[in-house]
Amino acid sequence: MMPSEMTHLVTGGAGFIAHTLIRRLLERGDSVLAIDNLSRGSLASLERFSSDPLFSFRQADCADYASLRNEVGDALGTMTLTNVWHLAANSDVPAGVEDPEIDLRDTFLTTFNVLKLMREFAVPNLHFASSSAIYGDLGDRVADEAAGPLEPISNYGAMKLASEAQIRASVESHIQRADIFRFPNVIGTPATHGVILDFVRKLKATPSRLDVLGNGTQRKPYLHVEELVDAMLYIQTVATGRYNVFNIGPKDIGVTVGFIAETVQSRMSNGANICYGAGDRGWVGDVPKFQYSTSRLQSLGWEPRMDSKTAVMRAVNEIIAEQA
Ligand SMILES: NC(=O)c1ccc[n+]([C@@H]2O[C@H](COP(=O)([O-])OP(=O)(O)OC[C@H]3O[C@@H](n4cnc5c(N)ncnc54)[C@H](O)[C@@H]3O)[C@@H](O)[C@H]2O)c1
After folding, report:
1. Does 3 have pLDDT greater than 80?
2. Ligand 1 pocket, 186 CB below 6 A?
3. C-beta 247 within 6 A of ligand 1
4. Is the CB–ligand 1 distance for residue 61 below 6 Å?
5. Which residue has the least CA distance to atom 7 on ligand 1?
6. Is there an atom of ligand 1 within 6 Å of 16 CB?
7. Is the CB of 129 within 6 Å of ligand 1?
8. Which residue of 9, 10, 11, 17 sits with most ligand 1 atoms within 8 Å of its CB, as the best mutation to test the pocket?
């Protein structure tokens, strides 16, 4: 790796969304150092980058500052980081409800340590993967970036919100700029978790029956990972503020879990019996419906090409092919 080319640190680099982000950064000709503790991501997703001289990977736990600092310091040598994309977090919301320590460590402490690292290495720019989970259950209200009070209903959402607050404070002291990206449900490959992967795996194991968590009426917006990363890079390039908060999502009101179940069933096992559970929540911390305002991002000049339905149909095909 050429010294002057090392610019981006991507935490959670072996995960689902990071895969597309890293690919796009490398395509731009930028250098990438990816960090992951491999708790949920896998090295297999990084294989395609392994021969690229602009790419390097280190295994480190971002919740352990000494480990993070040592691996990043060693990989950098005399090179300089300009951007951190902080994607490492717990992605299993129900697991974090069972054991709150998981989100304290992987969702909050990782952010705290990344900010500490940025201070030590004098890194100016942070791009943070936040979540619609910070809004909590808004009922029929549409969540725009100025919505409040923010009352997350999962430990995951609480620790994302705490991370945002810590980042905001750091902009006052040692960070030149922070972008806060509030993601909706993001879908595509390489899938590490989520409703489509869950359904595909269940139908592979038992082709005659598909069990759904909740009654299938949960309605949420879905965005394909290619479009999500497109929006992140657009904001990085076009936004000019020191602290930029953006909802990223489709323009529609989303699709139901029942629609996703039927789409997967029709592609994999047409005769399968879809067995719905009770209630309009899949798990504690799930919201029955969620509606996003993305007008701030549209005003900046970015719009998705796919609606939730198109994104789901494309991701179902991709995940079925990947799991074959
Ligand atoms: N996928 C979505 O629908 C979605 C929605 C909202 C927000 N997000 C956020 O986007 C980011 C990426 O999510 P994803 O879907 O790619 O999840 P993912 O689980 O595929 O990726 C997260 C990666 O972080 C790594 N990681 C976790 N804890 C770590 C630690 N302590 N140290 C180092 N690495 C650690 C995991 O091993 C994994 O590879 C996360 O911050 C997530 O909260 C995702």
Report:
1. no
2. yes
3. no
4. yes
5. 131
6. yes
7. yes
8. 17
> Is the minimum distance from the CB of 110 to ligand 1 under 6 angstroms?
yes
Check residue 219 and give its pLDDT.
92
Output the pLDDT for position 23: 97
Which pLDDT value is given to residue 153?
93
The predicted-structure confidence for 23-52, as pLDDT tens digits, reads as follows: 999 999 999 999 999 999 999 999 999 999
62-98: pLDDT as tens digits: 999 999 999 999 999 878 999 999 999 999 999 999 9
**CB 103 less than 6 A from any atom of ligand 1:** no
96 lines ligand 1 (CB under 6 A): no
* Model confidence at 5: pLDDT above 70: no
CB-ligand 1 contact for 269 (6 Å cutoff): no
- Where residue 111 falls among pLDDT bands split at 50, 70, 90? very high
pLDDT digits (tens, 9 = 90+) for 140-158: 888 899 888 899 999 999 9
**Per-residue H/E/C for the chain:** CCHHHEEEEEECCCCHHHHHHHHHHHHCCCEEEEEECCCCCCHHHHHHHCCCCCEEEEECCCCCHHHHHHHHHHHHCCCCCCEEEECCCCCCHHHHHHCHHHHHHHHHHHHHHHHHHHHHCCCCEEEEEEEHHHHECCCCCCECCCCCCCECCCHHHHHHHHHHHHHHHHHHHCCCEEEEEEECEEECCCCCCCHHHHHHHHHHHCCCEEEECCCCCCEECEEEHHHHHHHHHHHHHHCCCCEEEEECCCCCCCEEHHHHHHHHHHHHCCCCEEEECCCCCCCCCCCCECCECCHHHHHHCCCCCCCHHHHHHHHHHHHHHHHC
Residue 127's DSSP bridge partners are: 85, 179
Q: Residue with the nearest Cα to atom 11 of ligand 1? A: 87
Residue whose CB lies within 8 A of the most ligand 1 atoms, among 35, 87, 111, 229, for a mutation test: 87
